[in-house]
Amino acid sequence: MRLTTRARYALRLMVDVARNGGEEKPVSLASVSERTGISRGYLEQLVLGLRNARLVRGVAGRYGGYRLAERPANITVGQIVEAAIGPIFLVDCIEDASTCVRAEFCECRVVYSLINERVAEVLREYTLADLLDPNWVSDHGADQGDGALPIIPNTTGAEGRQSADPETDENPRLAGKIERDTGGLER
């Protein structure tokens, strides 16, 4: 199972809006694009789902942009991910048993459902506020010998862009360790 690029970028967008404007000050997609390296066109697509899910609000005008619709502590990672990619279903038969002729007697469907529920629980458990808290990030991201990748510090240059290529998540420290996913969009 993979978290799509679309879901990851929606999380990055929300973290940036929360960090740079929050509920009060609108943040332009152009400035988010500069800081994150995600193209403005992709951000425009992502923000549609986030607005429909009532996670961000648009502010019109010269100094407009997007601001959070709620406090970061009230926005779960699951809400963001589902706004970007839809409901989390490991396999189609969990959502709709009629998609599989074996659904009624499949031995594996129970396991699929359990895995799906645990993933959904984790996504509901953590909030945007958690992602903004450097202590939470360092406590949960450190390599404890369990194969987890360490948190890579934000290495922004003078223009505010990351030194890694964020469009493909290429980072010299992680070369070859991250599979790429276009999130179903053509470039």
Overview of this protein structure:
The protein has 187 residues and is mostly helical. The chain has 8 helices and 2 strands. Strand 1 (56-59) and strand 2 form a beta hairpin. Helix 4 (77-85) packs across helix 6. Mean pLDDT is 77; it is low at 147-187.
Can you give keywords for this protein?
187 residues, mainly alpha, two-stranded antiparallel ribbon, 2 strands, elongated
Strand content: under 5%
- Which segments are poorly predicted (pLDDT under 50) over 5 or more consecutive residues? 147-187
Order of helices and strands: HHHEEHHHHH
Distance between the termini: 23 Å
Specify the helix fraction band. 40-55%
Number of strands: 2
Summarize model confidence as the mean pLDDT.
Answer: 77
The main sheet orders its strands as 1-2
**Mind telling me the C-alpha Rg?**
18 Å
Q: Tell the overall outline.
A: elongated
Number of helical stretches of at least 4 residues: 8
What's the main sheet like? 2 strands, antiparallel
What structural class results from the helix and strand content?
mainly alpha
